[in-house]
Amino acid sequence: MKLSQLKIGAIGIIKEFTDLEMSVKLMEMGCLPGETIKVERIAPFGDPIAISVSGYQLSLRKREASTIELI
Hints:
By secondary structure, the protein is of the alpha+beta class. The protein has one domain: Roll (SH3 type barrels). It has helices spanning 20-28, 62-65, and strands at 11-17, 36-42, 49-53, 56-60, 68-70. The chain is globular, with a radius of gyration of 11 Å.
């Protein structure tokens, strides 16, 4: 399952990334494999998505969230 498919309040664990270039950016922001991630809010048209990861909130575009595979 991809992060972009989760609903508000859903929790997942980061498994891997499907885009190498985007994965570097995401890992610098605390999205590391094995981290628990929770969807806090989703904008009315589905973009961006606010998530909690590594103790802080982060907003991602839907295309960025779709590169994060969850367990």
